[in-house]
Model the fold of this input.
Amino acid sequence: MKNAILSAKGLCKSFAHNGGQLHILSHVDLDLYEGDFTVIMGSSGSGKSTLLYALSGMDRASAGEVLYAGNDLVKMKEDALCVLRHSDFGFIFQQIHLVSNLTLFENVAVPGYLDKTHSAADVQKRAEALLRQMNLSAVKTHLPAQVSGGEAQRCAIARAVINEPKLLFADEPTGALNRKNTTEVLNLLTGLNREGQSILTVTHDIRVALRATRLLYLSDGKIIGELTLSPYLPEGEKSRETQVNAWLTSMEW
Amino acid sequence: MEILILIKANLRRRQGTYLGIMLLTVLIACSAGAILSVMENSERALDAALEHSDSGDVAVFMSSEVLTDTLRSELEGNKLVERVRYLDAAYADSAKCGEKVYANGIFLTKLRDGILLYNSRADGFTETIPPLKEWEVYLPLGMKAKLECEPGDTIQFFFYGKAFDFRIAGFVQEPAQGAANIGWKQVFISGQALYTILDECSKENIFVDITIAMIYKAAECPLSAAKFSRQLNLETKIIANAMGALTKADTIRYTMILWQVISCVLLLFVGLLFVIVLIVMGHSILTEVELDYVNLGILKSQGFSNRKIRRILLAGYLLCELAGGLAGSLLALPLSLFLGRQMMQNTAILPNGGLSCGKLFLVLLAILLVSAVMVGIQTQKVGKISPIRAISGGKPEIYFDSRLLLPIRRRGLFFLLALRQLVSGKKRYLGTVFIVAILTFFMFSINLIGDLFNSKAALEAMGTRISEIEIRCLTPLDDATEKEIEALVTDHSPIRKKYYTHMGYMSVNGENLRCECHKYPEYINGIQKGRAPMYDNEILITEMVAEILEIGVGDTVTVSKDELEAEFMISGIYQCAYDSGMTFALSLDGAKKLGVEHITYIEFCLLKPEQSGEIVEALNRKFGDRIEAKLFDFDASIMNDGMIDSVITSLRAVIYIFSVLFALIVVEMVCSKSFSMERTDIGILRAVGFSVAGLRLSFALRFFVISLPGSALGMVLSSALSPRLIGGILGMVGFSKVELEFTFLTVLIPVLLMGVCFFTFAYAAAHRIKRVAVRELVVE
Done:
């Protein structure tokens, strides 16, 4: 029996639109489990990113609750959410979003400095190690404008895990990358998951879905399907792809 | 049509920027309009008042005994003169009302036509002026503030010891000598009281019988009032024989001088504020082009030429400047009324109302023209926008390199992030640095002026006599008494400097000047060129006298007093602010040639100033029948009753308030631009866990840091330019060369003020960070 690390109950999100309300998420109930690589898929406009941001506390749900460590993120104060963002959660954006005037090393280290549980020296050591792991040591003093998209996204992953988050969120992490860089990023995420990192990602990309241990399908703001998979192994990719494709077809993807 | 649509769209889109520029223009137009209007209105009002009071082109004050029939006929028969009006007067050497003393010459004359009585609010005149009862007096408004008196109060006039009491019946506009910074005053009493005073003083051999000769220049005389008076004096010696004289030009100069200085300072400040507006506009255009790269690129791809796009930007800025200028002009009206009332305390002339529309129009035109040129230059960058790059993603990514690239560490994280933002966008903040430099430069300058007038050492170096003890001689002193006095002083404290002087008026080449006769000329302060007049045929003149009389060191001049005259050589140029620089100095030996036998005033500078009180008591005890000793009143010494002090305080307040307002608007504008440019970075930082408060702190720190090099640059500018600037302004009152000294407070207050303002305003402006949602980083 897996432990739920984060639970959403009756989660709703709506936006004001043309004088009325546009409902994006409608009473979503969801548990995320420790050690899982959860991937949410769905068609465009299904509310994937909205769900991701509501679950990660980056955005507040209109109704319902998101429970994490006994606290409801929906009701949590902004300052407490800030602490949560740098201490317990990590986040990877589709558009990479590194701070443009910080070097790659600084982009990774700065969130580390915010979390006072580790000394500054430890943060620097860990940032160095992560950059090495991401194969970025040679460009660590470069600015984001001076590196490739793949390098920048690897740096963003390093930044997201600098504080050893309990849960790593990723919004279309390969959306802005070419094929080669996509594979590199996915290998990194898979590696992290293998080391025990819980991950929740939303994607359109079947290649990402293949790395999941749990697949969820979102349609019209509701989770309508779930597929559990064994941990990813490169040699089993073909049969995995067939399984996932079949499932996605059944979801009318 | 398409241009109009885009101009409207621009105005809507960049409301904040345009509003900021408009507000800055409002402040500039309002202050420039008010200052120029007040000056013009006051000058006009003074001209009208002089015309109405019929005071003549030159007023000569002379003992009635000296004004012989021969002199009268010579004067009246002179071809330069149209007519002469004679007024009987009694000369009082001081007046007292309650505890307040007016220690300057006062001419009590009969009330005459042309004098207007102020109403109780002093904002207009009564229709008629009631005749005076025997012991009633009308005072010029300029005396009201000095004596802090009201109608109904009793004022005592002193005639060399003999006193007469009068009841103040009201305050009048006496334009010739009414201004607060003209020492000699005319007050108006009944004929009965005047002749009683003259009779009673005459019985006691007190000579106070004066005639004021008001001389009118002949219509065909081409000379200016000043040259007319000089020529008349050369031809008739009327002024050389007089106690003093005042030309119409002197009246205008002395009445307006203080406000000319003030308006000069303020107009300079306003001019620099306009430079700030130009910098802000430049910054705004540059960031706009960066932020709007895509839109501008699209416009270009749709066939809009560079010139058209630049015209659209130009129209937006000029429109908001025009709106600001018009709004400022409207606001200038109440401000000019307020300033006019303030100015009245000094000029004692009721100013005319209304705006100086012609000058204001020229100011607005100049603002628009200079701005148009500035916008034209700055928008050249539009030409570099590539439609292709704009359509494919917009502006290039940030890349920068700098020696100031400090690594980001946990210790001082927010400060280091602030510094990084600065370093990575140096060009964007360069304008702000210049703005702080301009504001602090002016604040330093006004502080320097303030310090100057509060520093005894600086004033002494500039020619002012600053002492600890001053002694008025009631009778001529012989050498033995002078030695005894000095011995008594040195028993208590060594003497650092001593001034044995007599002050009066003499003519130099016909020009009536204040004259300082020094027994010990080696102690004369403020010699700029040449040396002290050590021999009895030498004089020192001020730069202003040299300029007006077109004379210099080594030249020979004729100095005359009464019937005596002698040739003197100019031994040097010195600085002296008395009579606004219309002064000369000579040795007592030299003055003896012109009938001055004794000194009448002694001042001592002590090495032990704390002994002053004791010395004054001892002097009055021992020599009380021959001298009157008192402690030197520094506050009342520079100009009448600390007027300079209050003017500087007001100027300082205006400059500080405007600086804070400008800082507020500039910080708000620059912050909003920076915020727009850094919105994504702010979102990322919030996403990785930075709190809103932390990011606001970092934003505020960045602007605090900007204020530091700005202040440093301001200080460099100030040390290079302030002496010349202040010398130029104070040259109007006789201080052409100033000794400035940067003190800790001179520097600290502006630096601190700018730092605190920039920090606080940036922190407040950064409230927008709250509005940045991390969701904005999401691309759906």
Q: What stands out?
A: The mean pLDDT of chain B is 86.
